[in-house]
Specification:
Elements lengths: L14 H11 L4 E2 L2 H4 L16 E3 L4 H14 L3 E4 L16 E4 L6 E5 L4 E5 L4 H8 L4 E2 L12 H7 L6 H4 L6 E7 L5 E5 L11 H5 L8 E8 L1 E2 L3 E9 L2 H13 L6 E6 H11 L9 E9 L1 H17 L4 E4 L3 H12 L1 H5 L5 E4 L2 E2 L5 H14 L3 E7 L4 E8 L4 H20 L18 H4 L2 H14 L16
Amino acid sequence: MTSASQASPAAPLRAADIEALRRLVGAENVLDRPEDLIPYGFDGTAAIKQGAACVVLPKEAEAVAAVVRHAYANGIPVVTRGSGTGLSGGSVPVPGGIVLCLVHLDRILEVDPANLTLLAEAGAITKAIDDAAHPHGLFYPPDPGSMKISTIGGNVANNSGGLRGLKYGVTRDYVMGMEVVLPHGEIAWLGSKCVKDVAGYSMKDLFVGSEGTLGIITKVLLRLVPRPKARRTLLATFDAMDAAARSVSKIIERHIIPCTLEFLDRRTCESVEDYAKVGLPTSAAAVVLMETDGHPAVVEEEAAAMEAIARESGALTVEKAADEAHALRLASARRSAFSALARIRPTTILEDVTVPRSRLAEIVAFVEDVAARHRLQIATFGHFGDGNVHPTVLTDETDHEEMERVHEALGEIFAKTIELGGTITGEHGVGLAKKPFLPDQFDEASYRLLKEVKGALDPEDLLNPGKIFDRDR
């Protein structure tokens, strides 16, 4: 983890700039009073804060472009923001810069069942997109934990994942096109509704996961899929994480690809049960949530096979959902993990390292060892099916001595992740929090390439400067 103070410095925003922004977007859409700026000084990342100088809330892409043109002409940094649910410090303000908040660009513009697409503005809420697809028998699969409040523009900018990533993939797999405001203020459209489109470079893919450093996403064209006709949910408990991991490996080996394959360790189970009262056995070392969806006959066959595999692998219990309400209750055990853990200590640091599935038990055991050696409370849960682990540190950011141990522990976890062939972030992004560790994952040439792309598109380093890496001027 790092601090927002490491972002690129900038000259203070002038009163003349504030007035110019009011003329561009309307006075009611520009905030500069200190009391109004407080909520925009941080995102969902613990222990990273920076006061905003000015917040602009445009209502259309043309207004976004006008603000960016003014910023470019006057050398003012711009940080784009959606709902502020990010977990890497990516939308934390830059000193002296503009926070460009896109929550008013929240319309779903088109659902096209003939082409299985949906067009939405960047501020549309993720769950609202799936809700809009539902009446047409269609489905938007990516489901980050924040889907009820996160915006689709933020999901695209961070290439968000979710619980269904094993079977359905992540946000990138559903982006067919986008409207982007470039650093000089031009508006560009990238991609199309065509399933096959190889005209030129795949520029839309460059902007997916770029964390607001290359351009500002204002509209997104998304691919939809037919909504599954059936789903079955199971919850298995194990007395050892190794046994849980073996059951997951056997499920994949038998060519069963569940839509959800999640796990919680004992500490997480205890917290969730205390918080949500869903009936979790708190004595189990690991709980695995399994969901299969698709054709009803296939779903029943796969659910039976997963139950058998779990029992063969030493499951203490396997509970099958009797109906949709029961399934939602079981699934809530995983979806409420972060909320449950956040109640325990003043500060909750949620990380997201990812390793090959075959090394999952190793990284979970390593996290337990690190927690013991550094005398920390670390709970672990995550996406067993795709190797994405969320070590969650329960701490207090005002305790400086403890925070030093937290930094050391996380550094060890990131180093071990890379050693196991993994990545320091599977779905949260780099932002400020992971920036110091990124060079350890890249070789010199590939790390330099990141900076060359940024330099080519944003030579003045005005879009979200200081995030992902520091530019060498």
